[in-house]
Amino acid sequence: MIAFIEGKIVRIEDESVLVSVQGVGYEIVCANPYQFQQQMNQHVRIYTYHYVREDAQVLYGFKSREEKELFAKLLNVSGIGPKGALNILSASGVQEIAAAIEREDEKYLTRFPGVGKKTARQMILDLKGKVSNWLDEGTQVTGKGHAAQYEQKEQMMDQALEALMALGYTQREVQKIMPELRKLEAQSVDDYVRKGLSFMMNSK
């Protein structure tokens, strides 16, 4: 098992990054390759999951050990493959996903691409109690109030995405910055849009 790779990022593509390590180039598939944009041509450590099957071998990469571990757990859920697991990780953070699983929030989980009610229920059945270690002591996982906060944030994020696309950005361009945008705790849609525009400018 290849636990991580350290080297220089020499190319970033829509689905992967290319890391040069002592003359060898490793293509690493990531949930959001453009999160490494600021580290282009710099020495980085990327945590990796070596996925092997009869017809392919793929290296999946993550910025943190927690992301890698959650990816591995998601692969054990019936109905979720590597692409589906990456889509989930690209749409939200480890803590948010873990909190939704622990509070059995099917509505939140079905917002992820490719996750229907059946898969969301399977995620809860298979992973509840196994992801709680990623929650901070102050993170609430139950109660209507906390669920409502998540729902409100998701609504603002959706509106911000639509606003950015109305300004001329493509859905692919907007999706590149969504993981960073989700880490923010903005107070309004306008705040998310302004920060999104800033991310767009920095990613060019």
TrEMBL record:
<comment type="function">
    <text>The RuvA-RuvB-RuvC complex processes Holliday junction (HJ) DNA during genetic recombination and DNA repair, while the RuvA-RuvB complex plays an important role in the rescue of blocked DNA replication forks via replication fork reversal (RFR). RuvA specifically binds to HJ cruciform DNA, conferring on it an open structure. The RuvB hexamer acts as an ATP-dependent pump, pulling dsDNA into and through the RuvAB complex. HJ branch migration allows RuvC to scan DNA until it finds its consensus sequence, where it cleaves and resolves the cruciform DNA.</text>
</comment>
<comment type="subunit">
    <text>Homotetramer. Forms an RuvA(8)-RuvB(12)-Holliday junction (HJ) complex. HJ DNA is sandwiched between 2 RuvA tetramers; dsDNA enters through RuvA and exits via RuvB. An RuvB hexamer assembles on each DNA strand where it exits the tetramer. Each RuvB hexamer is contacted by two RuvA subunits (via domain III) on 2 adjacent RuvB subunits; this complex drives branch migration. In the full resolvosome a probable DNA-RuvA(4)-RuvB(12)-RuvC(2) complex forms which resolves the HJ.</text>
</comment>
<dbReference type="GO" id="GO:0005737">
    <property type="term" value="C:cytoplasm"/>
</dbReference>
<dbReference type="InterPro" id="IPR012340">
    <property type="entry name" value="NA-bd_OB-fold"/>
</dbReference>
<protein>
    <recommendedName>
        <fullName>Holliday junction branch migration complex subunit RuvA</fullName>
    </recommendedName>
</protein>
<dbReference type="GO" id="GO:0009379">
    <property type="term" value="C:Holliday junction helicase complex"/>
</dbReference>
<feature type="domain" description="Helix-hairpin-helix DNA-binding motif class 1">
    <location>
        <begin position="72"/>
        <end position="91"/>
    </location>
</feature>
<keyword id="KW-0347">Helicase</keyword>
<dbReference type="GO" id="GO:0000400">
    <property type="term" value="F:four-way junction DNA binding"/>
</dbReference>
<dbReference type="Pfam" id="PF07499">
    <property type="entry name" value="RuvA_C"/>
</dbReference>
<keyword id="KW-0963">Cytoplasm</keyword>
<feature type="region of interest" description="Domain II">
    <location>
        <begin position="64"/>
        <end position="141"/>
    </location>
</feature>
<dbReference type="InterPro" id="IPR003583">
    <property type="entry name" value="Hlx-hairpin-Hlx_DNA-bd_motif"/>
</dbReference>
<dbReference type="InterPro" id="IPR013849">
    <property type="entry name" value="DNA_helicase_Holl-junc_RuvA_I"/>
</dbReference>
<dbReference type="InterPro" id="IPR036267">
    <property type="entry name" value="RuvA_C_sf"/>
</dbReference>
<keyword id="KW-0227">DNA damage</keyword>
<dbReference type="InterPro" id="IPR000085">
    <property type="entry name" value="RuvA"/>
</dbReference>
<keyword id="KW-0238">DNA-binding</keyword>
<dbReference type="Pfam" id="PF14520">
    <property type="entry name" value="HHH_5"/>
</dbReference>
<dbReference type="InterPro" id="IPR011114">
    <property type="entry name" value="RuvA_C"/>
</dbReference>
<comment type="similarity">
    <text>Belongs to the RuvA family.</text>
</comment>
<keyword id="KW-0233">DNA recombination</keyword>
<dbReference type="GO" id="GO:0006310">
    <property type="term" value="P:DNA recombination"/>
</dbReference>
<keyword id="KW-0378">Hydrolase</keyword>
<dbReference type="InterPro" id="IPR010994">
    <property type="entry name" value="RuvA_2-like"/>
</dbReference>
<dbReference type="Pfam" id="PF01330">
    <property type="entry name" value="RuvA_N"/>
</dbReference>
<dbReference type="GO" id="GO:0009378">
    <property type="term" value="F:four-way junction helicase activity"/>
</dbReference>
<keyword id="KW-0547">Nucleotide-binding</keyword>
<keyword id="KW-0234">DNA repair</keyword>
<dbReference type="GO" id="GO:0006281">
    <property type="term" value="P:DNA repair"/>
</dbReference>
<dbReference type="GO" id="GO:0005524">
    <property type="term" value="F:ATP binding"/>
</dbReference>
<keyword id="KW-0067">ATP-binding</keyword>
<dbReference type="GO" id="GO:0048476">
    <property type="term" value="C:Holliday junction resolvase complex"/>
</dbReference>
<feature type="domain" description="Helix-hairpin-helix DNA-binding motif class 1">
    <location>
        <begin position="107"/>
        <end position="126"/>
    </location>
</feature>
<feature type="region of interest" description="Domain III">
    <location>
        <begin position="150"/>
        <end position="204"/>
    </location>
</feature>
